[in-house]
From TrEMBL:
The chain crosses the membrane at residues 213-230, 242-263, 311-336, 356-374. Residues 162-179 have a biased composition (Gly residues). Keywords: Membrane, Transmembrane, Transmembrane helix. It comes from Polyplosphaeria fusca. Residues 150-186 are annotated as: Disordered. It comes from the Eukaryota. This is Uncharacterized protein.
């Protein structure tokens, strides 16, 4: 977006917010009016909703020569007819061409997205030390519209009251004006006090995963300590011991970082704190959308994209545990291979060491290839890649945030009307 277009967009956004406030005020002040005024206010709200939707779409999805991730996001994850035709022209079947095209888009889409978000060095760090599933989960949390904390509008009634508000089933009329009638609706906090459901679920997932990594890391460490006492280890290649020592170190680090992550996540007591920790900024989406000085492409992108340190912090225990398991399995392969080639186990039968090594390689290869290929193919075909997650969350942003802003504005004017009413009562008491 060029500077002129950005200036026009900022001015347009300010006009939209101003019209939104005026329309909401009119809607609240004319609540006792006829059905015609209410329908007009509803129509204006729908129009403002569409304006804000179009504005967010233009800010997020306009093509940029500097960031190719927006084009990947807009095009989607599935292979186009032109791409399938280009692959088919090289002698591939349509099914193979479609899979190859989706694979290339899955790989290059992830590289382009992370390069545009975190620069080349950050993209390398994400590829080596970050987990794609963690990044997708954090993007899902940041795109969820419940950000400032919700309050449930309830009526305070006595236990066992009927819909009319009377205990014991006494009739009280539709408005609850009888004995024991309900009071005016009150804004009360949610049942559990943690009002942001998306942030709450993310916090629980991270804590459960950290507990799992702690247990698995301790188990791997005990296996490695036992493996270091195997026979003929000093006579085999030194790389076997080096791999097992590396596995022991990474397992201990995984256990430590898992416990540290539980402590860090546990100190976040609200959804807003969780989102601020993921973004590494206290700026909220509401502030960006309502402040002309903050409304630009970069800030909107940062609101739904997690910061690199937060992704690496959450990914660290799982990545270290996977590395520990990999070093352990490679060490066993080297150990069994040199027992066979150097004929260290002289008491074994003829070619027994070779057969054991072959069985180990076959079982390990089958398990890894089958389950890894299935998981990898599922990510490609279901659109669960980086750019696919960003596209889905951007669609959620365009669909749900305008409605959420309208609800926040409506709640604001309701609270403002309640405040003015209480102020009027206080003034009357003083008189």
């Amino acid at each position: 977006m060029n500077p002129v277009g950005l200036s026009l967009a900022i001015f347009s956004m300010s006009q939209i917010i101003e019209e939104l406030n005026v329309t909401t005020a009119k809607s609240q002040s004319s609540s006792s009016g006829g059905q015609t005024e209410k329908s007009e206010a509803t129509t204006q709200r729908v129009q403002l909703n569409q304006k804000l939707n179009d504005y967010i779409q233009s800010c997020l999805l306009e093509p940029s020569s500097k960031r190719r991730w927006s084009k990947k996001l807009r095009d989607g994850e599935k292979a186009t007819d032109e791409e399938i035709a280009s692959f088919s022209g090289h002698g591939f079947k349509p099914e193979v061409a479609s899979t190859s095209s989706n694979l290339s888009r899955w790989i290059f889409g992830k590289i382009n997205t992370w390069t545009g978000l975190y620069r080349p060095l950050g993209a390398v760090a994400m590829s080596l030390f970050g987990k794609q599933s963690v990044w997708r989960a954090q993007v899902e949390v940041l795109s969820h519209p419940i950000q400032l904390g919700r309050y449930e509008r309830r009526s305070r009634r006595n236990p066992g009251s009927d819909p009319g508000g009377n205990p014991g089933g006494n009739p009280g009329g539709p408005n609850g004006n009888g004995n024991g009638a309900a009071r005016d609706p009150q804004w009360l906090p949610g049942d559990d006090g943690f009002l942001d459901q998306a942030a709450k679920e993310f916090k629980e997932i991270v804590q459960n995963e950290s507990n799992r990594v702690s247990v698995a890391g301790a188990m791997i460490a005990s296996v490695i300590i036992t493996a270091l006492g195997l026979d003929f280890l000093s006579q085999s290649h030194w790389s076997a011991r080096a791999l097992w020592i590396s596995s022991l170190v990474t397992a201990l680090l995984a256990t430590y970082y898992a416990g540290d992550l539980i402590w860090k996540i546990g100190r976040l007591f609200s959804g807003r704190q969780v989102r601020a920790w993921i973004r590494r900024t206290d700026v909220t989406m509401i502030q960006v959308l309502q402040d002309d000085s903050l409304m630009n492409r970069t800030n909107l992108r940062d609101m739904i994209c997690p910061a690199l340190p937060s992704v690496l912090t959450v990914s660290a225990p799982g990545v270290l545990l996977a590395a520990s398991l990999l070093f352990l399995l490679l060490g066993f392969g080297v150990y069994l291979g040199f027992i066979w080639t150097r004929i260290l186990d002289t008491e074994a039968g003829h070619d027994d060491s070779r057969d054991v090594f072959i069985v180990y390689i076959v079982v390990l290869s089958l398990c890894y290839v089958i389950y890894s290929a299935a998981d990898f193919g599922q990510d490609i075909q279901s659109g669960m890649s980086v750019s696919g997650a960003l596209a889905a969350c951007t669609e959620k942003l365009k669909e749900e945030w305008p409605r959420y802003i309208l609800e926040q504005e409506q709640e604001f004017w309701e609270k403002e009307a309640k405040r003015l009413e209480l102020r009027h009562r206080m003034n009357s008491l003083k008189m």
